[in-house]
Amino acid sequence: MRLFAALWTLGSLLKEAQAWSFKNGVFHNSIWLEQAAGVYHRESRKGRYQLTYKEAMAVCKYEGGALATYEQLEAARQIGFHVCAAGWFDRGRVGYPIVKAGANCGFGKVGIIDYGYRLNRSEKWDVYCYNPNSKECGGVLTNPQKIIQSPGFPDEYQDEQICYWHIRVRLGQRIRLRFLEFDVEEDMECMADYLEVYDSYDDVSGFAGRFCGDYLPDDIISTGNVMTLKFLSDASVTSGGFQLQYTAFNASLFSQDYTYQEFNTLV
Ligand SMILES: [Ca+2]
């Protein structure tokens, strides 16, 4: 049994080594991150680790899904679902799926990092839901330049959308986001519908802003060669949506003494 487990682990590691690699100078994998095989990660609108087990179930149900089972989470992980945040899943279990070993997440392990069945269901975590019918959008973008639009644009986006776009450009490049059109259901703190931008490979670190309403956000420039955009709409009231363009540029350009106007003509 132990030998089998060791072989399985070795097999997984080899598979991961293939799945994550440098290609054309871009570090990437071949999957849709954060939402895969009908499984997705959610946190409370109040922030990370705010959901009791009962609330976690309600979050999934609200969106027409249910808590993911261990098997569903593992199936999603096998095709690249990687989230560095512990969440409830089926039967009061807590854990998170790790594809790529990292020192800061998952104790350097790959697999479902399993905290086991929790005796105290009042503990607060995030949640992993399963909904095979959720509308998919987003993706991993590696082109040097591309337009990103809300789903259905120029029509209004629909309710209950969750989209993640991961932008990865060549090492040594940075990314500039320029908003072209923006109209997302407005509320004071963007709790209903919103677009979030992260100066990071995931939506865990590097928070750069949360946007709603119809005010066109300023340009956003990354510090590295990756960025993540997250769009979420709730169960009611839609709007026109958004359109933005990202452009990769050589980091060395930005470090030279260009004025912002000059810089804008360069990228
Ligand atoms: Ca809405």
From TrEMBL:
- GO molecular function terms here? hyaluronic acid binding; hydrolase activity
User: CDD domains in the record, alphabetically?
Assistant: CUB (cd00041)
Q: Where is the CUB domain?
A: 137-249
What InterPro entries does the annotation carry?
A: C-type_lectin-like/link_sf, CTDL_fold, CUB_dom, Link_dom, Sperma_CUB_dom_sf, Spermadhesin-Link_domain
Q: Does the keyword Hydrolase apply?
A: yes
Q: What's any GO biological process attached to this entry?
A: negative regulation of inflammatory response
Q: Where is the Link domain?
A: 38-131
Q: What protein name applies here? A: Tumor necrosis factor-inducible gene 6 protein
Q: What are the cysteine partners in each disulfide bond?
A: C60-C129, C84-C105
Entry keyword set = Cell adhesion, Disulfide bond, Hydrolase, Signal
Read off the SUPFAM superfamilies from this record.
C-type lectin-like (SSF56436), Spermadhesin, CUB domain (SSF49854)
